[in-house]
Amino acid sequence: MPEIGATLREARMRARIDITEVEVRTKIRAKYLRAMENEEWDMLPGPVYVKSFLRTYSDYLGLDSRMLIDDYRRRFERPSDLEPRPLATLGRERERDRAPRGPLLPPWAVVGLVLLAIVVALFIVGGGLSSPTTLTTGTHVSTPKTHKHHKTTTAITTTTIPVATTPKTVTLHIVPTAPVYICMANEHGKVLIPGQTFTVGQTVPTFSAAKLLLTLGNSSVKIRAGFGSITVAPSSKPTNLLIGPTSYRPLSSAKAPSCG
Question: pTM to 2 decimals?
Answer without folding.
Answer: 0.39
